[in-house]
## 1
Amino acid sequence: MEKLLIFIGMAGATFLTRYTLIAALGQQEPPSRLRRWLRYVPPAILAAIVVPAALTPQGHLELGPHVWAMVVGAAFAGRTRSALWTILGGMAAFHLLRLLGVQ
Amino acid sequence: MADESYALAIAEYERGRGNHRYFLGANVGVYLAWGTSGLVGALLGTTIPDPTRYGLDLVFPLGFLGLLTTFLENRSGVIVALASGGLALLGALLLPGKWNIIVAGLLGSGLGLLLEEVKAAWKNS
């Protein structure tokens, strides 16, 4: 029962954080400066997720298979522009390296 | 709306192909996959002792890497990504939790706007 309440509460919280901005700004064109700033948010956030995931998979700096998998993934990303091929290429590289004994 | 479907849809918009149907499709796809894999995970999750051994923690970063290229078509996008990635790496070593992503994302995107304003001011002077 308590877990159910937590689920409902979190559903409300996650809905409100998304909906309030849309409700506030969705009706009219957002101000020009805000719009120009928002265009830089995707590359900034995506890079902020990707770089630490490659270089600090356990919270500290390490040059392991994660890095090389990401490098191979970046090559796939550049060639195919496809998230799916990037995942497949990077995962293939990761498992190949594990098979070869790279830790 | 989930991070992944939002990123997918916004990348389509950036390529000039985005529309609300694609956005809805991405969201429905994520919700279906989320629900079913949540169920599978609840039933079988304990049989996989350490998911990181199979590199499963790499799947989402790789997917985001695939989407990132869409935003690197112009020079300011590249500068923003490099600055934000560097800051996030530094933050990963210094900040607790995932705060590095928020901080680097805000500073990196702010830098993009700043560069744009400086460039515009330079042109007008």
## 2
Amino acid sequence: MAQAAELPNKLFANGRGVLAKFGYGRLDHDPAVEDWPAMWDLLKGDFAVAARPEVPSFGQLGAAEQAAAMDYMRRRIEADHSLEICERLHVELFAGGIDTARVERYSAARETYETCVEEFGEARERLEALLRRKS
Amino acid sequence: MKTYDKGDVLPDDYKALLLNLMAFQGDSEYAGAQRVAENMRFAPRPEEAYRLSKKVMEEMGHGYYIWNLMQDLGVDVDARLQELVRNPDNPDPKKVNVINGFRKENWSTWFECWEDVALFSTVVTPAAVAFLGQYRDCSYLPWARVNVRIHKEEHGHLAFGVWASKRCIEFGGEKTREFMQDRVAKFMRVGLGFYGRPSSGGNKSAMFDKYYEYGIKVKKPEELQAEYMELLESRLKDVGLEVPKGVEPDYDMRVGYEGADKPLETVN
């Protein structure tokens, strides 16, 4: 996927740099060939609570946990796609000026991003419940 | 209270006062989002990073809403966006009205770790919820309507703070809870000073009476502070933290009433 044009500051790029620690930047990957175990290694810190500091590798997860982990990871990828749309619309507002149509387009895009992030969180909670039951 | 809607002719002094507060809100929403974006570097885990990124997108959206309304009143808002985007670290105060707390030189002194990020949204955001909440009932109806939308999302940011603080403790245990308790006071000073000085007495704000008379501000600082304390106590209790005693407000981080002395320039 093509990168959106950038604003003339580093704030979004730096933010994406942080998200990249958790797998952002893999938007051009075909989900059919996605390296889920490698992505899991980047994301499993979300589950390393004090009561269970060691989180199993993807291969050590049971079938139900693996399915839940893949759902969680797919939702992160969806969030990345919607974030990219938001950032592109920021550039449009900066370059083209503020008007009602652009503001509302951005509003709709960020609501989609917000929903994706919420769903990512809900998927984490479902997987967390499975891991807790197992440990 | 006399109200005005889109397209109504506004008295000159009313318009100047209104635009001053709208500019503070719009510019500070966007600048605040830039500060929140800088805090991404503290995010310790994936969900924390994504939720903070979501907050950045929301706050910038609030800025766009307000600027869009200001444009209807003749303000060159594109110049304000240009200034903040091109100079995020030190925007020119002659071009934008950013509250002191959202200027980088002040903001950056408060944050050393993710726990600070979580506490900011738990301890300072209730002040924003109370403060901005009053604009839902203000005399300029387009601004009131937009603030209904914004207020709902600011409540969401408060929920983020509680969630993030609880997660810190879930991952770090009692030691982290104690660490966070010690840091509540520095943010509470900011929260208490958010509304400005009391509406009466020797230290009263020079401009408050005018805003209040016109219905641009509809609550007194004392009322907002009581609302803030109620929200703060309930959220801290939810997290497992206590309200520290003897904390004094930091008025230097407030939204400045005095800035209204100088009206904004309009394009028509």
